[in-house]
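note to self: dont lose this again. the chain is below, predicted strucutre after it. 439 aa total, dont forget to put it in the shared folder this time
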Amino acid sequence: MRGAGVTLDWSAGPSHGLQGVLQVPGDKSISHRAIMLAALAEGESRIEGFLEGEDTRATARIFGQLGVRIDTPNPQTRIVHGVGLHGLKPNPEPLDCGNAGTGMRLLAGLLGAQAFDSLLVGDESLSKRPMARVIRLLERMGARIEARDGEFAPLRIRGGQRLHGQAIDTAVASAQVKSALIFAALYAEGETVITEPRPTRDYTEAMLKAAGWPIEYGPGRVAVRGGGRLSAQTFRIPGDPSSAAFPLVAALLVPGSDVTVTDVGVNPRRTGLFQALCLMGADLRFENERLQNGEPVADICARSSRLHGIDLPDALVPDMIDECPIFFIAAALAEGRTRATGLAELRVKESDRLGGMARGLRAMGAAVTESADAVEITGGPLQAADIDSLGDHRLAMSFAVAAQCAQGVTRIRDCANVATSFPGFIALAHAAGMRLDPA
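---
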């Protein structure tokens, strides 16, 4: 974790014949939103399958600071005693989001409508991530938010503002930006209509509807009226498809592998990676498909496959933006050339993921060409290397998968932040037969 005095490096080497039936931690996006909606609901909500990661725990701690009682009867379970839409209490202390961009952006929308001031802070990585695109749109609704250099955390949010419904075109395909506006719209006078250039994940909309809020939505558009009430409910959180991607792609790439990950959320806005892998020739199957709290869930089975390069359809990019790093690993080990465009969003994630992945893959011997928002990767054999993960959990886990197919032992540096989204990743890797250990 850069700047936090914590370092953790990994050592990874080639593996053979990965096997197993695995379960990954709960969906991070849903875990954040479940805490927020349960806190604003009237009555007691139960959250099962909560992700015990540093990001989601940070969001829960913040609501504790704001006067919401949250009990933990056992791991992955939270009992949230909701205070209603207007029951949050002021806290003069900084509200620390840690590394959670989702937490900070959604909280900016929610806190911008409160009667009291708030200060949102984050770690070194989060403090470098751009917030201006969220701030400017919230200010159009009447919020007042001050940021360092007008763009970066800490965010000082001025309370007591009257928010007004607006017709807003986000201009960027980002579920975090959209969801921040939706949380602000819960408090705004009149109706807020949000349109996106391309559809993004709709967890916030679906969860609000399930809680009884008057909301209408479809691909790329959502209409929210202020002044409703949220009902307490039980949230059953499925496995995170972003986390499932790592063992599944490893199984596709390592010869003789057959791996199943159970209880994975397969919301259509989260399956872009799996669609892309199928276009590359992956042997992927969805089994035991069912609905859980209105969300589609399935067991996903992956067998070692001979992948080939593709031109990634632009329409898939928003639905796999978090999975692009592991997709690049698949492309580097596929036959032929893979091209992808529309990747500018990767430059402003926990790290510059496009640049970081390109540098790491080149170090492992891959042929990679990148531009501001595009990449071209020609597949071929990989070799061990010393990789800097840039403190980014998805880069660290992606290169851990690449190392399973590389010659020699790869060292992956700065991996502590994997705990933000996938606690127990090394244990799960061992269960499947991957060679991965602290260095």
